């Protein structure tokens, strides 16, 4: 970078020039708005640019009208990389950090690129203060509120008709954890969501459903368990037992990876600080 009078001359690769030009464009926008670029603002611009560089190559192709899902933090990119490289992945993290959404996106990518033949989305039907037997309707009506977040994520990525067709043809199955007993899932991308609400026995039962050509992603937030206080969470137990096995990946996302409304991060931090 050379200053010549009122001109700055840049030399480097095409990618370096593009990134540097982007920094100058952002600085120019700030000057137009505020009249000056303060040091703190410059640090933020440079930090954002470094983050974008670090996230290169992490996008997930959904093969749906060229739609891509992009990681929005270093932790999220690490999570995606683990899913690509490992057959069994555990992901812990607070609400809003993208652990479920990114897992569903990777499942859709695997299905549409013919790496798997089916997607199975699983959740334990556990909720503080409620029992399934007291809820109205048949079994699927009872468990639908528990499974809805997984379906919402998929509906956000694919059109409604396509999701309906997948479910009708049993290409996508959404089921409570109890329905997994006795099954073997071959060539399947399986996601177990809210795994902090599984017991050790349930987790063992679920993980041993894994068949040939399958991938399992287990997600959860151990700070929001609905299990009784004297019951050990199957998620933490499984990570402790299995994390050093080849082919198993563990990712822990943090408040820095939260991508929902900005208040979500502050809410999580406030509860973490209080310790209650």
Task: Give structural notes.
The protein is of the alpha/beta class and 276 residues long. The protein is built from nine helices and ten strands. It has a six-stranded parallel beta sheet, with helices on both faces. Strands 1-2 form a two-stranded antiparallel ribbon. Strands 3-4 form a two-stranded antiparallel sheet. Residues 127-132 have low confidence and may be disordered.
Instruction: Give the helix/strand class.
Output: alpha/beta
- Beta-strand portion reads 15-25%
Distance between the ends: 52 Å
Helix content: 40-55%
Instruction: Output the helix-strand order.
Output: EEHHEEHEHEHHEEHEHEH
Which strand order spans the largest sheet, edge to edge or round the barrel?
A: 7-6-8-9-5-10
Largest sheet: 6 strands, parallel
Unreliable spans are 127-132
Task: Specify the overall morphology.
Answer: globular
User: Please, what is the average pLDDT?
Assistant: 84
Radius of gyration: 22 Å
Total beta strands: 10
Total helices: the number is 9
């Amino acid at each position: 970078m050379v200053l010549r009078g009122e001109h700055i001359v840049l030399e480097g690769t095409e990618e370096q020039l593009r990134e540097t030009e982007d920094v100058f464009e952002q600085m120019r926008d700030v000057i137009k708005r505020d009249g000056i670029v303060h040091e703190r603002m410059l640090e933020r611009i440079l930090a954002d640019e470094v983050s974008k560089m670090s996230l290169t190559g992490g996008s997930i192709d959904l093969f749906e009208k060229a739609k891509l899902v992009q990681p929005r933090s270093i932790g999220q990119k690490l999570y995606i990389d683990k899913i690509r490289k490992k057959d069994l992945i555990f992901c812990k993290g607070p609400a809003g950090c993208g652990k479920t959404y990114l897992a569903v996106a990777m499942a859709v990518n695997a299905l549409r690129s013919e790496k798997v033949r089916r997607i199975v989305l699983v959740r334990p039907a556990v909720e503080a203060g409620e029992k399934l037997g007291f809820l109205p309707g048949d079994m699927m009506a009872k468990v639908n509120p528990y499974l809805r977040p997984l379906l919402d994520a998929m509906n956000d990525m694919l059109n409604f008709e396509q999701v309906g067709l997948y479910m009708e043809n049993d290409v996508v199955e959404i089921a409570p954890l109890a329905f997994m007993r006795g099954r073997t899932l071959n060539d399947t991308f399986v996601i177990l969501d809210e795994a902090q609400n599984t017991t050790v026995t349930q987790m063992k039962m679920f993980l041993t459903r894994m068949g040939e050509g399958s991938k399992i992603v287990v997600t959860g937030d151990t700070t929001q368990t609905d299990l009784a206080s004297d019951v050990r969470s199957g998620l933490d137990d499984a990570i402790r037992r299995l994390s050093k096995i080849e082919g198993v990946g563990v990712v822990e996302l943090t408040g820095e990876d939260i991508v929902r409304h900005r208040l979500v991060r502050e809410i999580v931090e406030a509860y973490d600080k209080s310790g209650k």
